[in-house]
Amino acid sequence: MTASTPKRRPLPTTDNGPIDNTLNRIRVAQPGMAKGASRIADYILAQPDKIVSMSVTELSEETGVSEGSIINFCRGIGLSGFQQMKLSLAQEIVQPVQFIHEDVTRDDDMDTICRKIFHSGIQALRDSLSVLDPTALSRAVDMIRAAKRVEVYGIGSSAPIAEDTHYRMLRIGLDARVVVDSHVQAICASRCDPDVVVLTISHSGATHETVAATRLAREAGAKTIVITNFARSPIQAYADLVLFTMARETSFRTEAMTSRIAQLCVVDALIAALALADYERSTETLRQTFDVLSIKRF
User: Residue spans with biased composition (Basic residues) (predicted)?
Assistant: First the structure.
C-alpha cells in the first residue's frame, strides 16, 4: 500500500427538487473544503437570498472560481447542481429552521444552558434525518444479514456508541463483537475475511486509528460500513457504504455531544430495520435475552 492520498468518494446526490438544511450542510462541510470551495461557501452563507436570483456565471465572477468548481461544490454537499442549490436556498429562506445553533457561554443561567443544549440536539436529529439515505440503510441491513459476523469499531467519543451498537446487535441475535482499543482494532481488522462486515463509527472520519482499521478490514476482504458526519473525510475512501449524520459543533460543545445523539439515532434506525427484516428470530431472541437478564434484577 502506497502512502498516496486516498481518493474520496462523492457524496450521494438527491433528485432536482429542493432539499432541507442546505446552509447547514455547507457549514458542516466547510472546514474540510479547499480554498476555492471555502470561498464559495463564505459567499453563500453571507448572502443566501442573493444566490437565489444569480446565475452560475454571476456567482463564478463574484467568487473568482470557475463555473465547474461551483457545480462540483454543489455536488460535494449532496446536490445535483446549481439549480437545485437555488431552489433549496429559496425554500430555506422562506421557511427558516425552527432552532438555531447557539454556543453556551460562561454567563448563561441553567435555564439557558438547558434550552441551548436541547435545541442543539433536536436540530442535530432534524439535520441528520435530512441526509440519512433510506436506500443506504436498506443496503446496510442486507450486508449485515448476509455476514457471518459483525465487528464494530469506535475510538474516543465514538467508543460508547460502538459498545451500545454491539449490545443492541447481541440482543437481536447477531454474532457481533466490539473493539475500542486501536491496537486490537488493527489486529482484528487484518484478520477479517469476506464473511465479515465491519461497522466503523467516527464523527470526523479522520481519526488515524479508525481510518487505518477500516482500511485494513477492507483490504482483508470485509465489507465496510461507516457512520460519519456529513462532509468529505478520509475514511469514506475505504467504505463500501456510508450512513451520514449531520451534527454541527460549536466552539464550546465538542463532538462528544450532539454527534453522539445523531449517531445513536442512526444506530437505532439500523437495529430496528435489522430486527424487522428477521422479525420472528429477533423477537424470540429479545425474549430469551430478556429472560436471561431478568436474573440481574430484583
Answer: 1-10
**Tens-binned pLDDT, residue by residue, of the chain (298 aa):** 444 444 445 555 555 677 878 888 888 888 888 999 999 999 999 999 899 889 999 999 999 999 999 999 999 888 889 999 998 888 887 655 444 456 777 788 999 888 888 888 888 898 898 889 999 999 999 999 999 999 999 999 899 999 999 999 999 999 999 999 999 999 999 999 999 999 999 998 999 999 999 999 999 999 999 999 877 789 999 999 999 998 866 545 444 578 899 999 999 999 999 999 999 999 899 888 888 888 887 7
Q: Cell 440503510 sits at which residue?
A: 137
d(CA 38, CA 120): 24
Domain extent at residue 247: 130-294
Q: Would the pTM of this model clear 0.70, i.e. be above it? A: yes
Residue 3 lies in a domain: no
Alpha-carbon distance of 228 to 243, in angstroms, equals 7
Length of the chain counted residue by residue: 298
Residue 191 within a domain: yes
Whether 235 is covered by a domain: the verdict is yes
State the Cα–Cα distance between residues 133 and 220, nearest whole angstrom: 27
Q: Which domain CATH number covers 145?
A: 3.40.50.10490
Q: Are residues 250 and 169 in the same domain?
A: yes
